[in-house]
Amino acid sequence: MARAVETVTHPYIVSRKGYCGGNPIIKGTKFPVRAVVNYVLRQGFSPEELVKEFPHLTLAQVYDALSYYYDHRDEIERELENNAEDKLRVARTN
Q1: Could you give the 3-state DSSP secondary structure of residue 26?
Q2: pLDDT by residue, tens only, the chain of 94 residues
Q3: Could you state, in order of their start, the residue ranges of all structural domains in the chain?
Q4: How far apart are alpha carbons 91 and 52 in whole angstroms?
């Protein structure tokens, strides 16, 4: 029997058209979810280390950003890829 898809809310994550490119960010900041993913999952920071490095973040916000990533993996992976391509373009012009 098929299970109904449940919509999961992420209380610390917002996306608004025209604000930070419409990308998901931590509410009350301009810190993108993709940055949390980059630091924690790609660079190996622990969530606790990330909060020490960026004291305006809380552990709850960081863990919610990671949860959002796992619920929206394709979207965030595209953002990470696009952001990396943008950085390469800027580096080439300098």
Answers
A1: strand
A2: 556 567 789 999 999 998 988 999 999 999 999 999 999 999 999 999 999 999 999 999 999 999 999 999 999 999 999 887 766 666 666 6
A3: 13-93
A4: 29
Q: Looking at domain 13-93, does it have CATH number 1.10.10.10?
A: yes
Q: Quote the pTM value.
A: 0.84
C-alpha separations of 59 from 5, 19, 75, 87, 94 in Å: 27, 24, 23, 28, 37
Cβ atoms of residues 58 and 51 within 8 Å: yes
Angle of helix 59-71 relative to helix 73-93, nearest 10 degrees?
100
